[in-house]
Amino acid sequence: MIAIPVLPFILTVDLESGWMEPHTSRLERRASALRGQVADAPALERLVADGDPVVYEVLQRDVPEVTGQLICCTTVIQAGTVGAEYFMTKGHYHADRTAGEVYLGLRGRGLVLLQNEDGDTEELALGRGGLAYVPPGWAHRTVNTGEGPLSFLAVYPGQAGHDYATIEHTGFAHRVISTSGGPVVRPKEAGR
Ligand code: S6P
Ligand code: ZN
Prior knowledge:
By secondary structure, this protein is mainly beta.
């Protein structure tokens, strides 16, 4: 494959809202995108019936999806819960398991849940100015545990691709639950 040359460019990222300009794609994921991923499926269906709100959006500056390029995008996750479970991204492995990623927290508070195919799990607290390093081969999901939007900048290799199916099948090992004492990370098997 012949890589299309990309000229140097600058992007402006609003450090409060996570808005990126100029972006070339914008993806919205609504509550219904989390079907099969949450502990409280009836609560999710109520939310879907009640307007299926946007849970998060991703603004991206597209570049050729090839080795050597770096994809830059921002994600903004709204505050909220499905039952007691905080709003979160679907989560994925990179299709190319050699491709890592970095997240730079811009606004809000959250957790990045990570796990690899050996069964190891980690969680990283993400807040403004925090840089979360996602090594190659680790699935990653971001959870908004704050009271306002959580936004972060992501940079990852052009050839990474996204494998949603593998983690959808196994599920993440942990859930992040809102309790009166604050966010708690629980093993998935513990249910709600
Ligand atoms: C891409 C990177 C992020 C996520 C975004 C939405 O590799 O990890 O830009 O795509 O946070 O998450 P998801 O799991 O729906 O792609
Ligand atoms: Zn990723």
